[in-house]
Design brief:
alpha+beta
């Protein structure tokens, strides 16, 4: 199995619903991701670790998941919008979901995954987010199974006004071509608190108040380290490649 399924990745890939914009999401639906996180958090030790890679996993009352790996801090959902599903949703550009052998790379034209912590954390504005020391590197490693070229990877967290869920989730997507991050900070790696603190420095440069900005992460053009930028709007929509873009 390739490096992106290593123990350090600490991930699962699963199917999840497509979520609407924050302003259109009923309060009763805003905890969908946190309920999944709570469910998987209770069962991850005995159930997720024993499941074979990429095997279907049905947890009654929780979700139907395709497992890649599981760890202590976070997991990753593969959103239904990646594929046509019953002819009703998904990106037709991707065709039918593939079932690659362990270790195979699937270079999908359109990629949309969500990295989510097991713990209850509302977003990047939540002080508890600083306790997550592996989620950004886990998300980056998960992207390798779908976006082999690191220069094309984007990690993005939307600000509160642009979110449909009251649970932190990092969007894992393809980066649009020729995009520039304003006031980006460079970091050598994505572990520890490096991304959180770099985003705060970027926000101060742009005059953005805490809790009002999203975060975008991409490879540094020079190939060494990463760019981290605070974004006033939605970095998912500004910088991520959408279906059929």
């Amino acid at each position: 199995m390739r490096h992106w399924i290593a123990a350090a990745a600490a991930l699962i890939l699963a199917r999840s619903p497509v979520f609407a914009a924050a302003s259109r999401t009923p309060a009763s639906q805003r905890r969908a991701l946190s309920r999944i996180a709570e469910c998987l958090g209770r069962l991850r030790r005995q159930t997720l670790r024993s499941a074979a890679p990429r095997s279907p996993l049905l947890i009654p009352g929780c979700l139907h998941a395709t497992v890649v790996a599981a760890g202590e801090e976070d997991f990753v959902l593969e959103d239904l919008k990646m594929y046509p599903y019953d002819g009703k949703s998904g990106c037709r550009e991707n065709g039918t979901p593939a079932a690659p052998a362990a270790g195979d790379l699937v270079d999908y034209p359109y990629v949309h995954l969500l990295a989510i912590p097991f713990s209850r954390i509302t977003g990047d504005e939540d002080p508890k987010a600083l306790s997550l020391t592996r989620i950004w590197s886990d998300a980056w490693d998960a992207a390798a199974g779908f976006i082999p070229d690191e220069r094309q990877r984007l990690l993005a967290v939307n600000p509160p006004a642009e979110r449909s869920q009251d649970q932190l989730h990092i969007h894992i997507m393809r980066l649009k071509g020729n995009v520039r991050f304003a006031a980006a900070e460079r970091v050598d790696d994505l572990g520890g608190s490096s991304v959180w603190t770099a985003a705060a420095r970027s926000a101060r440069k742009l005059g953005l108040k805490p809790g009002s900005f999203g975060i975008a992460v991409a490879r540094d053009p020079g190939g060494k380290g990463y760019r981290v930028a605070a974004v006033g709007g939605s970095p998912e929509r500004r910088f991520g490649r959408l279906c059929a873009d």
